[in-house]
Amino acid sequence: MADNKQLAVAPLPLPVPDDVLVRRVQAGNTEAFEELVRRYERKVYNITYRLMGNEQDASEALQDAFLRAYRFIGKFQFKSSFFTWLYRIATNVSLSKLRKREKIDTVSIDQPVNEAGDLPFEIPDLKYGPEKLMKQRELRAAIQKSVEELPEDYRSVVVLRDLEGLSNEEVSNVLHLSVAAVKSRLHRGRLVLREKLASYL
Amino acid sequence: MKKRKKQTGECHDCTEAKELIARYVSGDEDDELARKVLLHAQTCSDCAVLLRSLKRLVHYCSLEPTCEMPVTVRRELWVSIRREIHTTHRK
Fold first, then answer.
1. Range among A4-8, A99-103, B23-27, B80-84 rated most confident
2. pLDDT at position A93, please?
């Protein structure tokens, strides 16, 4: 009897494709939405945390993203994958909150890193790996801090591509940018990060 | 155009090389591109450092662990979602 009860409340199995779950939600099945939340809550939290830089703001953005997804899932037309759509919502919510939270320094994405197009860097001593130079925790903190300091256009691309591991094509879908624009912003963002993290590289 | 005089007397166009390095590190899979980048990096120390540091940066970022979602954050998320679902269903 207890086993039957457990079976009755067991969440939907993971292999159910996202699209099937979305159609179930659109038909009024709220458990399907809860399954989508369980599937993506950590990923979405990572995106909001990377973009917002602190737990409280990330938590608010996380909630807003899923609430918006729930309110608008009826309009989802399967032109993109569900996760692309969800990540776009999470990114937009986070960036919108960021704009409200702080007066963002609007650096043009076309502005060169410096006049000469050169970047100052320290030549690393290859005898020592970064592990020997710095504790891993410090490197992680430095990466997070440097990412937070990136201009908004670069930050979203770097977070999605380099930290969350999306492909260039997926990032272009999430951010509604061409793949060429993604690559361009990614490279510029990386150059800024490289400058900030020179002592670790 | 940035020209650099090498000890070998050979001049290299690093502006073009930097563009190629950007494409290479951004994931353009092209054997010819890779060959050009690596060939240039062998003869230009600045570009070699640029290439190496960008590759390390991408590598370190890829090693970044997933942020652990705090229990309180997850709890608040589910409270707000269930409230939303409840409210929507009552309408």
1. B80-84
2. 94
Is any Cβ of chain B less than 8 angstroms from the Cβ of A163?
yes
Q: Is B29 part of a structural domain of the chain? A: yes
Which of B15, B60, B80 minimises the CB distance to A63?
B80
**Minimal CA–CA distance to B27: which of A165, A167, A175, A193?**
A167
Model pLDDT for residues A44-69, shown as the tens digit of each residue: 999 999 999 889 999 999 999 999 99
The DSSP bridge pattern shows strands B3-5 and B11-13 to be antiparallel
> Which range of residues forms the domain containing residue B41?
3-65
* Cα A150 from Cα A182, distance rounded (Å): 15
Q: Which CATH number fits domain A130-200: 3.40.50.150, 1.10.10.10, 2.80.10.50, 3.60.21.10?
A: 1.10.10.10
Contact between chains at A45 and B54 (C-beta distance less than 8 A): no
Using the beta-carbon criterion (under 8 Å), do B69 and A42 form an inter-chain contact?
A: yes
Class of the CATH domain delimited by A8-101: mainly alpha
From chain A, the residues in CB contact with B26 under 8 A are: 168, 183, 186-187
For Cα atoms A120, A123, A124, give the angle at the middle one, nearest 5 degrees. 135
Q: In angstroms, what separates the C-alpha of B86 from chain A's closest C-alpha?
A: 10
CA atoms within 13 A on the CB side of B59: 9
- Parts of chain A belonging to CATH 1.10.10.10: 130-200
ipTM, 2 dp: 0.75
Put simply, whether B74 touches A (Cβ < 8 Å) is yes
